[in-house]
Amino acid sequence: MQVSIESSTGLERQLKIGVPADTIEQEVTARLQKATKTVSIKGFRKGKVPLRVVKQHYGKGVRQEVIGEVVNSSFYKAIQQEDLRPVGQPRIDDLNDVEGKDLEFMAIFEVYPEVELAALTKVKISRPASELVETDVETMIEVLRNQQAKFEVADKAAEDGDQLNIDFVGTAKGEEFAGGSADAQDLVLGSDQMIPGFEAGLIGVKAGDETVLKLKFPKDYQSDDLKGKAVVFSVKVNTVANKELPELNDEFFKLYGVEEGGEAKFREDIQANMERELRNAIRTKVKNRIMNQLFELNKVELPAALVTNEITNLKQQMVQQFGGGQEIDLSMLPDDMFKEKAERRAALGVIVSELVKVEEITPDEVQVRARIDEIASTYEQPKEVVDYYYSKPELLSSVEAVVLEDQVTELVLAKAKVKEEVLSYEDAVKPDPEPGSEG
Known about the structure:
- By secondary structure, this protein is of the alpha+beta class.
- 44% of the residues lie in helices and 22% in strands.
- Strand 1 (2-9) and strand 2 form a beta hairpin.
- The radius of gyration is 33 Å and the shape is elongated.
C-alpha cells in the first residue's frame, strides 16, 4: 500500500492511497470461488457453477463490496502509518478502480488540532460552600404545600397571595392593543404574572368591583410596540379566592412517596433530597467554573466537523426538550442559533481530551460505583438499578465519562488558585449564568 499526503491546509488533510491490484483481484476471486458452491443459476446444478459464470452474474457486485471494504481498511492503515487523528469519516474522492490496475483514491478529512495546554496554576475560581439548615427545610416544605394549595372563593377584600378571576381590557391612547385583553382569567396576586403595578393595583378589591389601572410597560418589555408605553387597563373582578394550604398529614405525605413514618419520615426524605441536590449543584458549579477557565486559557483551532456535530447534538436536545414526540426537521433550525455554544463545547471537548491524555487519567472504578449508587438511591430497588447500569455498556460509559470530568475537575482544583465562596442553600442550587449571557 502506498500513502502520500497530497495537501495539508489548516486542519484538513488529503491522503492519496494506492492499493496493489493483486490485493483486490485475489479477494474478489476468493469470494467468487466461495460463491460457486452456494449460488443457484439456471442450467447448472448447485455447487457446480463454473467460476466464469458466477463472475458474469455476480462479479460487479462482489467487486464493489470488496472495494468498499478495502477503501475503509486501507484508510485506517494509512492514518496509523502517518500518525494522524481524523475527525469523523473521510470524504473519498477521485476513486480510480480499473480491473487489473492498482486501486487509487483520495481521502479528505480533518484532524484534531495540536493543543499546548496552559499551566493549571493559572486557573482562578471561587469554590461554593454551603450547608443545609433547618429553615431551608421549612422553606422547602412550604413550597411543596403551596404547590398543592387550593383556592376557595370567599367574600372578602383581595390580599397578596389571593387568586382573582378577572376580565380586563387594555388600551393605549384609547385603542385596544394585541394581547391586552382577556375574559375569566385567573391571577394570583404577587405572582408577577402581569406588568408592574397591575397586581398591586388590585389589592383590596372585592368580587363585582370594577377598577381602572393606569400603568406603563417596562422599557425593556419584549414587544417593541409596547416598550415604555402608557396604557390603561379596565378590570372587572369576578371572584376573590383564598389560598388554602394542605395540612401536614398522611394524605399530603403520600403525594411525595411517604407511605409510612409520618411527618418525621417526610422531613427526613425532604432533607436527604435537598442535601443531594446541594451536593450536585455545588459539584456542577465547580465543574462549570473550571471548564470556563480552561476555555478562556486555551485557545484551540476547531475542525469544522466537530462544530457541525455539536450543532446537530444541540438541535436534537432542543427538539427533545420542546418538541416532545413531534417529528421535526433539524435543518429547519438555523445553525447560527447554536454555533457559539457548539464551538465552546467542541473546544472544551478537545481541551479536556488533551488533559486526560497528558495526565493519563482513567475513570476511577470506586468513583464510578459511588456515582451509580447515588443514582440508584433515588429508586425503590437500588440494587436492581446498580445491576442494570453494569449490564448496559452504554450506560456505564456515560457514567464513566461524567466521573472522568470529575477527576479532571479534582486535578485542576489541586493546582488552581481557589477561594471559598459561602452561599445560602437557595443561591448554591441556583445555576450560574451561562457564559456570554447577561446577569
